[in-house]
Queue: 3 jobs
Job 1
Amino acid sequence: MRIEINEAVQFLRSHDDYLILMHASPDGDTLGCGFALCGALQRMGKRARAVCPDQIPHRFDYMREGITEQEFEEKTIVAVDVADTKLLGDMKALGDKTSLCIDHHVSNTEYAEMLLLRENYAAAAELMYEVLLALGTDIDRTIANCLYTGIATDTGCFKFSNTKPQTHIYAAKLMECGADIAPINYAMFELKTQGRIKLEQEVLRNMKYFGDGHVAVISVMLDTLAKITDIDSDDVGAMAAIPRQIEGVDIGISIKEKKPGVFKASLRSSERIDVSVIAQQFGGGGHARASGCSFECSYEETEKRIVAACCEALKQAGII
Amino acid sequence: MRIEINEAVQFLRSHDDYLILMHASPDGDTLGCGFALCGALQRMGKRARAVCPDQIPHRFDYMREGITEQEFEEKTIVAVDVADTKLLGDMKALGDKTSLCIDHHVSNTEYAEMLLLRENYAAAAELMYEVLLALGTDIDRTIANCLYTGIATDTGCFKFSNTKPQTHIYAAKLMECGADIAPINYAMFELKTQGRIKLEQEVLRNMKYFGDGHVAVISVMLDTLAKITDIDSDDVGAMAAIPRQIEGVDIGISIKEKKPGVFKASLRSSERIDVSVIAQQFGGGGHARASGCSFECSYEETEKRIVAACCEALKQAGII
């Protein structure tokens, strides 16, 4: 059932003993919403804990500052920024017991009893800010840091087209509540481990161009990763953005060796090409500008097949 | 003489035949202010042209969309985002004839007859937005694009500590005036030339660490640049941000060879260090988190002197 903010507020006020679910492979938005709501409920005198099926990277540690570890038996389940119970990993079973979901994904499967959805919002944290304002909780520095992080990370720090005037207005208000933006943005967008710098050098050194420079391919091989210490999955995932950032490139391909003989190709594209169509040809999928698919063959064969499909798409689009 | 906005507006209304000076090595802020003011004055029925001592990179071409090339003899000189006549390159002589300077640099030398300064603003474009509002000119899409670019580029797309609530509020207002943020931000922050990619690889390969890893130094030498085609001054300037992005680094130093025996050191720092103080020791200046200074000696001597000063600052701050 779709509900509005006042109904969500009424629900949150009249229940207790909250379990707040955040999605697997957690990002700044699900964590920001989860910890902000958890902190707000605790400040209202309620018991609450926020949980995630996957480990939370250390760069998000500051979000827990205002949270108290409480002993209680959970009675009320709320999911934040979780579009589908499939995104709950090994907590999937809890998804079907969710009373309230607060989300901004158009793809939300309406699995929760009550759904508060704003599909035109850049971040679920924008909606959570509205919920907390309506709840009347004090948005202190810690909560402001959580919500600001959600907004900043889901918009590429206000760079992407999902950023709206409202996004900036809420960022301004959260700064006035004490959000400490410079260290947050440094940790989210600038900081690179020495391992990541080494990996970037390695992948750039082996980058190849195809289709008159409209396609760029990088590869992340297991033997390369084995040579680099001080690297995490975030660092590896960040490589996917690199080839598409190069001038003239319409399709950026990052081929990652998952295990010997198994490769994952991540595709990123300009507005001239829909890469979800290309990924679908190989049983994959995703968004028009970011998609992926898997191959079980040699690296050479993987590269040959995905590059051929991309060049064909460029031809059909009249680009080459 | 320091003046306020109403006086600047009165001046701009009562004069004509404007030459607008933008600083050498132009960035998004000086260009955004220059072309926004030029467009606004032209829409008021006045004659105006905005000039820059250096070539303007093509990625800023969209800023000229609203500008008409006019034939006239310049009578009134206005400088925007120009802190010092030294920053006017071979137009330096015009600096002393400047009637009005609109700027946000605390280091402004007050060379102009009248100075409108907001040293606490992140971008001169924020001040220019206030001036154009007070002038009553229509902030159309082209002017909004110019001013948004100035604000976005001077704040690292709202990432840096100079970003204030006002910065976000003005960004929201400029979006409502039609600023087309996604392509601007892609061109400013994501797009890289193939030459830039090659240069990044080269500087990363030679990066050095000092002060227990709290200082990282890269160098951009003329013989390296000579080997790379497809590169512009922007690409070279962008290198300055790289060393400070590495985990654990408090001071990032980029040393650029301007000509044989002449080097420019660009400093970037964490909140723990004020690099403007370090730059001043060598006759340079700038902001607390980003400053620069020049050396006339060998590369080795340049590196030795600037690294020693940085390590001393780290010691005084109790970091090493």
Job 2
Amino acid sequence: ATNAGGLNVIRYGMARANVLGLEAVLADGTVISSMNRMLKNNSGYDLKQLFIGTEGTLGVVTRVVLALQEQPGSVSTALVAIEEGRHLATFLKHMDRALGGTLTAFEAMWQDYYRVNTAGLGRDPPLGRDHAYYVVVEGQGADPAADDARFTAAVEAALESGLIVDAVLPKSDAERERIWAIREHFQPDPGLRPFFSYDVSLPLRDILVYVEEVRGRLQLEWSTARLLVVGHFGDGNLHFIVSPGAAGSGDRAAMHAASDRCVYQPLQRHGGAISAEHGIGLEKKAWLPISRNAQEIELMQLLKRTLDPRNILNPGKVIDV
Amino acid sequence: ATNAGGLNVIRYGMARANVLGLEAVLADGTVISSMNRMLKNNSGYDLKQLFIGTEGTLGVVTRVVLALQEQPGSVSTALVAIEEGRHLATFLKHMDRALGGTLTAFEAMWQDYYRVNTAGLGRDPPLGRDHAYYVVVEGQGADPAADDARFTAAVEAALESGLIVDAVLPKSDAERERIWAIREHFQPDPGLRPFFSYDVSLPLRDILVYVEEVRGRLQLEWSTARLLVVGHFGDGNLHFIVSPGAAGSGDRAAMHAASDRCVYQPLQRHGGAISAEHGIGLEKKAWLPISRNAQEIELMQLLKRTLDPRNILNPGKVIDV
């Protein structure tokens, strides 16, 4: 119902791409059983799309047929450091091409995020804390020896060409987990509270300038504002952690609203999305016009009124009717 | 509008999986501009799904944003022979696992199809014509030397284990094209006319028994019936060419209707699709209840009536309203 994403969307797509069929219950109690099991089925309208990512507002999903993939037999990981923002996209393209379709993750951390999440390690982090950007890149294939050699050669080529300035390749699963923990386990320091989280996406080429636009707006709002940036760079999906810092004042709701303005208003001119993977719910409903135009919202409302005329399915979520 | 498929769906998905955004014109002239450029966007309903694969019945698609993929740097191909039908799916799984996500095509030909399409070659075909099944399997990766070695090793392992009984690996692009031509360029002999073509899909495990069910029904209909089977086996999608043969009598429409019955009626109990990739249009409309239940068809009709109340968009196609 939320078309969830995650760390491996770049390889496997979001939930929508992995759902073959489903069963849903409509507002009038009708059970729509579309339990398709085929990879290909163009026999009439693909009704499951009405229920994937619509957050329960058009029907209640009660069963799902998921497509399975062969489990990869190899995994190759690196944590790399990048100094110039423009190299993020170039390094992504380099690895995507070099790995020939086996790239499974490309996760970026801006410096502030890396510093916060390595502060409590109790040991030196895998890479120094003064680089501008960090990327966890991973490929999964079939043949550990050959895949590791290819992956390592691709990382070495990026080092030699200056795309990346440092890299560490884990030598064990435990080391791999420690690298992933830096990306995954957010460890906010006390000075960061309160903080507000975001889930935006935009075209790759606009990401760097957009982040600095947001940072500039936040600093105008609060001189001590902090912006931590992390995300699924390979998907164009960033997660922000925004904190007013010590200069933040006012109640939490007012601070949250100010933070929203700083993040969402500059997103519109980039054609970006206010939610890449977590959906709209109640919290982002007022901001939906940043990402969708009036005709789109009217068509959503028409679908909602048609399928749920008494507005009983997750009422008030996503759109008003 | 038809959610087209093709030879590489197993790797890249159908059109739906490759469309990021689109613009469509509704029946009342409203232009819905959903020109999303991101891989991830969960900001409200994914409206483009209304127009992908609905054959122009809910709107006219006027612009599309397509996702591009890195061009593969290597291609490895084999034509193999298989004697036992159950080995088709096992060989698919073997190659999918061995190639670690780089499998791009898995196309099967039953003996009769291979014979028809190699009859006019003017030379010996790449493999003898007495095998039960033939598969064109292809992987595309990044590194020609390493990928070819891995691909060849996977085919050799299948030979050694008896999954396949013969194989030929092209040594040039010209040889590769000759192999693909056997799969791609259907060359019906005069005795095959008239013939009727089909585009069904069903779960892999049911394919062999279903094909024989269809063959049995056709032989009851016409003692000289011929059934040529080819298709995107990796997607569970078969294309049939059905000919009444010399015993065929009656007008073409009556023969076509009899052929339809033989193909579609046994499909229902397998939960199969009467159209895997070519859509419903007019020709398959009467058979839609084989693949979709009454509740699904009513929901399709509700969408159609809501979005096109005057029935002016490709009227009469896919469903009646």
Job 3
Amino acid sequence: MRDVSIVGIGQTAVGEHWDLSVRHLAGQAVLAAMEDVGIERVDSLYIGNMISGETAGQEHLGALVADFVGLRGIEAFRVEAACGSGAAALRVGYMAVASGLADLVMVAGVEKMTDAVGNSVTAALGAAADADYEMPHGLSFVSINALLMRRYMYEFDVKHDDFAELSINAHRNAVTNPNAMFHNRVTREQFVNARMIADPINLLDSSPVADGAAAVILCPSERASEYSDHPVRIRACTVGTDSLALHDRRDPLFLEAAYISSQKAYATVGIKAEDIDFFELHDAFTIMSALSLEAAGFARRGQATQLAKEGVIGLNGDLPISTMGGLKGRGHPVGATGMYQIVESALQVTGRAGPNQVPNARLGMAQNIGGSGATIITTILEAHS
Amino acid sequence: MRDVSIVGIGQTAVGEHWDLSVRHLAGQAVLAAMEDVGIERVDSLYIGNMISGETAGQEHLGALVADFVGLRGIEAFRVEAACGSGAAALRVGYMAVASGLADLVMVAGVEKMTDAVGNSVTAALGAAADADYEMPHGLSFVSINALLMRRYMYEFDVKHDDFAELSINAHRNAVTNPNAMFHNRVTREQFVNARMIADPINLLDSSPVADGAAAVILCPSERASEYSDHPVRIRACTVGTDSLALHDRRDPLFLEAAYISSQKAYATVGIKAEDIDFFELHDAFTIMSALSLEAAGFARRGQATQLAKEGVIGLNGDLPISTMGGLKGRGHPVGATGMYQIVESALQVTGRAGPNQVPNARLGMAQNIGGSGATIITTILEAHS
């Protein structure tokens, strides 16, 4: 099996791109990645996307994007694992290079959430949950997370205010990320008084609906220096799953798929959680940040918000999270999010994160979550030494 | 890179399963494949599916099916390339085993087309085509194929009747396939007089909307004998692409993605088209059979229907096609079709196709088409010697 590295990255600014369709968004990221490497051809293209079928009536994004960027003919298809689609596509690209079946592979995540011409975005996002046993009861994807947050607050005697720092930290880091959707700081007072979305989740607990695309180019590590001055090794890219429906889980407040996926990743690299220098977690909602920190082994059960309050999660803390703004501040174009996390982590481990740089970031971990935790993909990145 | 073999198969009968949802269909095929091998665990599960998001509001089938069949926790996600989703998932499973990242991999294709609770099936299938430049003109997926058929008839001076044998052959073979949707023979007279769907495509040119699921278990070839008495080597599994929109193609009557994908497959195995013993082609419409036979190198341009009339395509002919009924007779549950082709081809090359057996079938080729030809995946199978 070949060792795999990232040799190029590309991303579009996250936001409301009313003038761009899904192919344009993906195209921008893909072409930026090719320009980053200085190549005009790759062997294959894997696209992570969740809801283009529902919102734009457009499946079949692999061939569509390949053709749009001038790569007509190459191997291409789409990978989907709800909001975990981006990193699931990375997993496929990783396998393609690791196997020796391909030498230069493009992986892109893309989502177009504004301007839905088919189903509403809210309905489309519900397809991440159990369509037979959860959604018919009138749940939305936000309200599923609200159930989790309410139960967490009850079980662990945590107040809503206790989640504030998770949102404040993400927004603080987004200010200096030019590709982030939001550049406004959030205060504790704003957090507490934000408009309610689905009790207890308020506006500042929630990541925004957004458009965006991000891409990387992979190649065998032994050839990485031919293509890049700052290649990044994929030390692990592992997948864990759980039931889609909350009510089927052993313990809804423990993200078992995150535990499985993290433990697999740590074992692959031969490290422990404490060896990780920063953690790009999937903060679709503040409750998801808390559950991720606990399941991945960074905080004890019920203690994640305490960790956040102690300043550990800031750029200069022991475990920086959401270093470029996270889903909350950078924005959460669902099928693209996993690839934004990878692009941002690659910038961090190569010391190119500018004002957002985590000091001495060597080993970075990104974790992309599909649904309320049914598919979780953990990727550990390290710069070439 | 490791050589990869199929060691187990499973399939549900194709038909209208009003009492089964997408998870039940997939579950039946997956459990049948596990029973075939006599195992209760695999390392990962890749699901090919096209329209579950649109018709059932259910994305995220990887984790859903893994959980449903008792495999909660394992790596799982979905792969999509329109009607080519089944074989695209096989490609991912192939890479997983070839790379050494997994030893036992389940690949399943599933589609639930009856009982759509969201978009209509017709609208959902349109997502295989170009949503910005084809569908807004009022096209359906059938009418896109009708444009191809009309143009083919004009360019090559072929009459509608000339396509009859393609439909007759498929139905003839479906009669003795217990998993086929249709068990009625079709006469030339019935073909000629069948109800018009989208001129010149009539009912007997068209494969039916159906429910179904099919699955295989993969492992490294060197360990195949531990799991199966009739293992099948995947000699090649290759992907080619083209533009989604017909008007963007160099020549709409030449399936360039089929040409690319077939040539890659032949080169991988080191053979020519004439070495293939049977060809499970993607006869969603009779025109697609003709275009496939030509692009894959079995007939000259405009000559495919002539080939069919000469009896070449029958079970005892030089190039049997649709040997278990094809999409026309077995049925075309879109995201599952590619995996039905693989299951049927595996039965053929191991001499287990019963009354449908192609004599001395050694090298079999299956070709799964996404859209009107934008993604085409070619798989060449051979029994272990």
